[in-house]
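cron nightly-structures :: item 1 of 1
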Amino acid sequence: MASIDLTLVSKPGCHLCDDARAVVLEVIAAVAPLAVEFREVSIFDDQALYDEHVEDIPVVLIDGRVHTFWRVDPARLTAALRAAPSHPSNASPGAAS
């Protein structure tokens, strides 16, 4: 089964990041058994992310694309994960899984 890559770009001491993390983890639990690979990256550890998103923290990326920033809407994130191209039900016919 293919997995969906969900990345939270955050920074230490950010209350919005704490809120976003909580929502993201709740949504991931709610969409199980959907395979979601979650990782969190500090904006201070990646210069390219810093340059691109310094004003937008926190940022949620799905399969490397910006889904949202600042606040995470659980219903919108759930729908986006279920519609992600890497979700097996959205794969092209004949695509490897």
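cron nightly-structures :: done
Residues 22 and 72 are 10 Å apart (CA to CA).
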